[in-house]
Design a protein that fits this description.
By secondary structure, this protein is mainly alpha-helical. The protein has one domain (22-209, 249-271). It contains nine helices and six strands; from the N terminus they run ββαββααββαααααα. The strands form three sheets. The protein has a two-stranded antiparallel ribbon. α1 packs antiparallel against α2 (68-87), α2 packs antiparallel against α5 (161-178) and α5 runs antiparallel to α6 (180-208). The longest helix is centred in the first third of the chain and has 31 residues, at 24-54. The radius of gyration is 22 Å and the shape is globular. The protein starts with a strand and ends with a helix.
Amino acid sequence: MTNTLTAPAGTTPVTKPNDLGIDRAFLIGMARIPAIAVLWTAAAWLASAAVAQFGWYLPFNGVPLNLGPIAIICAGMLLAAWIDGYAFKVPNWCTLSLVMSGWYIGLIHDLGEIELIPGFAELNSSGEVVSRAGGIGGALAGTAMGFALLFPALFIRGMGQGDVKMTMGFGSLIFAYFGIGDGAWILLWSFMIGVLIGGVFGLVIMITRRQLHKNLNNFREIATDLQVLVTAGPAKAAERAESRKKDWWRLPYGVPLCVGFLGYLWYIFFVVN
């Protein structure tokens, strides 16, 4: 937070940093995130209720599946990708609220109210429908896995913080819906597909810009950055990567990640099913 000092007419006002180093705008933005997460959670509840009301269940392995929460997950990823596509940055109010909404849904499941926001269901050995939804522990595990997948890229400046938080949000919500076991595989496969799509996207850009040789050298440097990350720590790897920042071109990686996330969900529900 800054304080503006009175200055003589015709001169530029002087700003004085807050003595505590507190950024008021940042704190206000962070304070809004729990409330926005409530809205995402409410949207998941409404979508689930609409499926139940109108009978829009998806037959999946003999079980009528409520995809209301999945629709909200997809909407959140599409919003994050759209913002990243034009602004090259995904704001905290979008990504962190998605993360927290997964926690809320997990907590609702732990409280025994899974009918409010249903999770993944299947038949047990007796032919009864059982839910495999995750609780707050599962949502936290999905958040942690989402961060871990992009941890190396984050510290060598190969990925933006918004992309990492976006993946954390997907992990949190997916684990809350599917549980830890199925959620982990879905997050891993969808992430790998997103990375492959991003690589193809980047290759096309390099070829069209006629910078293939230059960027191949950059890829070799990135491999060295990862080696430095393991041997010398993230600080050294980040310093090395930062020295090449002037030669980078920006790629809104949230877009291919979103394609991977949504594409894999489409595959498991509508292609394999």
